[in-house]
């Protein structure tokens, strides 16, 4: 996805000035697609030059130079084309996982102490979860009928809620696990010798299986 598609989606919801669009973006789509205000203004200029959007002077009697942007038919068609295009899910990329692997590889006397970092992340996820819950209570009160648009927006918000819940639970579990590890338990015992002497031809051995454990 490009920033242009995210901005046109927001403009399809409501025509806006660049300033108002940037503010709304921060409070909605910006939760899962970050962009600075400078990037937004530059992209608006490119989209207008491409014929996807147009702008008109704000109806304020000329008191300001504010321009209100709206999506043109060509822009709407581009959003439809993009939205129907299959895209792969994002792969997980988190340096904390690599740091934990380093901690495990350094053994029982590892100088690393990642508890503080995990605790910090736990608080960040809890804070965002509280914010999402507040949005849910404000915009999607229980028992209130929702329009099709609002139902889909609520579905998106619930994705964010479940994401933060999952990470918060992982952090809590990781902290409990690290607190129970003794120096002796950090060293894995040697694997017993295998008594298996035959293998089905073509069957994968342990090294071929997908695993998060260290490779032999």
UniProtKB/TrEMBL annotation:
Residues 182-194 have a biased composition (Low complexity). Residues 92-178 form the Transcription regulator PadR C-terminal domain. Residues 182-216 are annotated as: Disordered. Residues 11-79 form the Transcription regulator PadR N-terminal domain. InterPro entries: Tscrpt_reg_PadR_C, Tscrpt_reg_PadR_N, WH-like_DNA-bd_sf, WH_DNA-bd_sf. PANTHER family: TRANSCRIPTIONAL REGULATOR YQJI, TRANSCRIPTIONAL REGULATORY PROTEIN. This is PadR family transcriptional regulator. It comes from Aquabacterium lacunae.
């Amino acid at each position: 996805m490009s920033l242009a598609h995210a901005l046109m989606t927001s403009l399809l919801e409501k025509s806006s000035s660049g300033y108002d669009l940037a503010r709304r973006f921060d409070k909605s789509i910006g939760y899962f697609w970050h962009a600075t205000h400078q990037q937004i203004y530059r992209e608006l200029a490119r989209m207008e030059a491409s014929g996807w959007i147009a702008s008109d002077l704000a109806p304020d009697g000329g008191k300001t130079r504010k321009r209100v942007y709206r999506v043109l038919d060509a822009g709407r068609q581009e959003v439809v084309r993009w939205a129907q295009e299959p895209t792969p899910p994002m792969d997980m990329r988190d340096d904390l996982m690599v740091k934990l692997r380093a901690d495990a590889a350094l053994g029982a006397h590892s100088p690393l102490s990642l508890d503080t970092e995990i605790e910090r992340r736990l608080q960040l996820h809890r804070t965002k979860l509280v914010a999402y819950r507040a949005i849910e209570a404000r915009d999607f009160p229980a028992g209130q009928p929702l329009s099709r648009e609002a139902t889909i927006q609520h579905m998106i918000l619930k994705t964010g809620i479940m994401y933060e819940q999952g990470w918060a639970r992982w952090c809590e579990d990781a902290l409990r696990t690290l607190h129970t590890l003794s120096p002796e338990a950090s060293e894995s015992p040697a694997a017993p010798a295998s008594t298996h002497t035959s293998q089905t031809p073509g069957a994968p051995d342990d090294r071929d299986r997908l695993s998060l454990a260290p490779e032999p």
